[in-house]
Amino acid sequence: MKKIAFKTREDYVELLRILCKPLKQYYSEHHAFLNPGVTGTHYGVKITGLEGFARVLWGLVPFWKSGGSTELDVCVLDGIRHGSDPQDSEYWGNFPDGSQAFVEMAPFGYGLLLTPERIWEPLNEQEKEKFNQWLFQINEHIISDNNWLFFRVLVNCGLKKVGGHYDGAQVEKDLNRIEEFYLGEGWYADGMTKQVDYYIGFAMHFYGLIYAHTMQNEDPVRAKRFKERAEKFANGYIYWFGKHGEALPYGRSLVYRFAQASFWSALAFCEMPVFPWGVLKGIINRHLRYWFSNPILDAEDKLTIGYAYPSLNYSEGYNSPSGVYWALKTLLILALPEEHIFWKTEEEPFPALDSIRVLKYPGMIIQRDEHGYVTALASGQEVSWHPVHDAEKYEKFAYSSYFGFQVPRSYFDIAQLAPDNMLAFYKDGYYHVRRQCKEVEISENRIRSVWCPCSGICVETTLIPKGNGHIREHKIVTEEAITAVEGGFALAWDEVEEVIDSVSESSVSLETLKGKSRIQLLQGYGTGKYVFCEANINVLYPRTVLPYMQYEIPKGETLISVYVEGIPKESKS
Prior knowledge:
Layout: H1 9-20, H2 45-55, H3 57-65, H4 73-83, H5 106-114, H6 116-119, H7 125-136, H8 148-161, H9 168-179, E1 182-184, E2 187-188, H10 199-214, H11 220-237, H12 262-269, H13 277-291, H14 341-344, E3 356-359, E4 364-368, E5 374-378, H15 390-394, E6 398-400, H16 414-417, E7 423-427, E8 430-432, E9 439-442, E10 447-454, E11 457-466, E12 469-478, E13 482-487, E14 491-492, E15 500-503, E16 507-512, E17 515-523, E18 527-532, E19 544-553, E20 556-568
Antiparallel strand pairs: 1-2, 3-4, 4-5, 5-6, 7-8, 7-13, 9-10, 10-11, 11-12, 12-20, 13-19, 14-19, 15-16, 16-17, 17-20, 18-19
Helix pairs in contact: 3-5, 5-8, 8-9, 8-10, 10-11, 10-12, 12-13
């Protein structure tokens, strides 16, 4: 893809056109399905094709809203006609409880709310009825009790706006249930769970703001509430973003990449510059520049599955080749016309931000270094339904916008486990790591957690920010002698010979062209080591080396304390 400056509205239009262009050849004969790849999901090919068809709408609808058009427009209208017709060979289908298809109905609701003239009004009465009936299925089934409830809200509100058949009682019930997910300070949980991740920004708030904008006349009280919560959320969420445009890699669904900034786009769409317009624009512009400085597209300019580079290793079972187009939600800013103040304002840097900020509800202490990179000390989150590698995505001691985090290939071997910012115990032929916390306490300068990685072992860990890094204090109680390893930040490298090591019994320091990583033993007994990790396990870098301490822990109570730091290549310290 050609380099885009991401400064003007034309730059974002160009991005949309570039991303849409290669997709046209992957539509089915009557355009109801879009399958741009071959890797699988836990649902079937037809729903994957529906997913591809629908998710492109996250980018098309806002562009239509401002009067734009693309070469996919005809395909979309043709696909709706065929996909919603039960007698058609490309009928999207009737679905059981919990089907992924209900997720993919949300962009249609989005379209009905913002651009009915593109996907509703061109249909004849019979076609409208079929489309309505197909969408109405979402009211007749049980769906996931989390951000999915907003999908049903969008569909019903969209049908209401165009004079279709909808279920107002279901909308009220779903919105009331969503209220129960609210935690405070603008933060929700994604359902009745301890999970607080990017779904709060690119789902709970994104949909809440769409609702607030389109339904403010019908439901002014709730619309005002959603906007007030979004404003509170913005003041904490900004700490997840680094100075260079990157956001903190954390949690599931990282393959949605620049959807991380869709919340900021929704603020702009709703005329809510919580920060000055230039600051809001700067966050979005830098974010897109960051993403498209990385190899996230294939040779045809299609988005790939992965994060900073293509990889299936840390994807979930619901990540299809078309599902990644959820990222297009950030293009909601294309709904803003050329003369809007957002486009006319010069971008600005971040406002003054604290070097250390406690985020109570995500269970994080955010550190921002002198170069604007972000580290989150974390404890306490848990996803009750356990998506793949949930321990690594939610339960590490620290996450870094510069060093990323690692997802293992196995729990047998240290190189394949590669436990950056984790304490892992070797028992019964496996390494056992923190998967959930039994207790968590967070204060202004520390996070304390109690966790038990396996039977017979219990750990009390305290995380304390300090300088460029942090201190970890562990009180380990074990019923038998056991071996454990504790990793620092994984360090990227391009060629093996660039790795410079300094290893002693009590510390390991590594340096490459990408920076420095160090772990130093402050209390207890251990041996400093490092390992070249299995390739393609870090979300940011395909090759990493990991400094770690190895402990031989006796039966009973053991106290261990380490200092861990990672220094980006920009630093002179």
